[in-house]
Amino acid sequence: MSMSNQHITLLILYYSRHGSTRALADAIAEGATAAGAEVLLRTVADSTRDQEADTAKQPKSDRDIQVSLEDLKNCDALALGSPTRFGHMASSLHAFFETTSTQWLQGSLTDKPAAVFTSSSSLHGGQESTLLSMALPLLHHGMILVGIPYAEPAVHQTRTGGGPYGASHLSQHQETSLSEHEQQCAEALGRRLVTTASRLKKEQNLGKHH
Ligand SMILES: Cc1cc2nc3c(=O)[nH]c(=O)nc-3n(C[C@H](O)[C@H](O)[C@H](O)COP(=O)(O)O)c2cc1C
Q1: Closest CA relative to residue 166, chosen from 152, 180, 181, 186
Q2: Which GO molecular-function terms appear in the entry (predicted)?
């Protein structure tokens, strides 16, 4: 564990039907773990399963555990990920946020850092609008949004996903593997969430003792 970072728990909350958003979640987790954080990967119930014919097969594993409202309270930072769905986050993820009004009233996420990530199948198919729309509930919850600064070389170099608004992947032909630059952007975002959470936690702890 990095000596400079406080003990940080990063909740990576994502929805993924075909595995691309999940690949980004993994890359963010790698960056965060390397920065010394504990990572909790969690997903949400699929609210569209019954209505849409679906041939996708996702392996069931521990990583398919659904998020609990306690997870929101207990985390120090949050990364939120969704496929791009008509230029917006998936309704399953949005539906989850509509169950968080108690946490909103309690300020469970207030003053914690957050970041967003997405995967889309076409280059100009709405990654940025999806990322910005995902920031909205997080702002309502009082979270502190972090992106990926241009100081990260991969943000300049990428020809697919990854940009200042968050990590992303271009999954043309349902390709789930991240490009080198997408991987670097996602890892950088994971690291940045951890260092930001650590700084904030240090300040908040100092505040408590004064
Ligand atoms: C209902 C629906 C809407 C979609 N809308 C878009 C879209 O607006 N733009 C786009 O580029 N891709 C769109 N896609 C494709 C997904 O964003 C893309 O396949 C994504 O990589 C899936 O992520 P996943 O592998 O995590 O499920 C859509 C897919 C579905 C099923």
Answers
A1: 186
A2: electron transfer activity; FMN binding; NAD(P)H dehydrogenase (quinone) activity
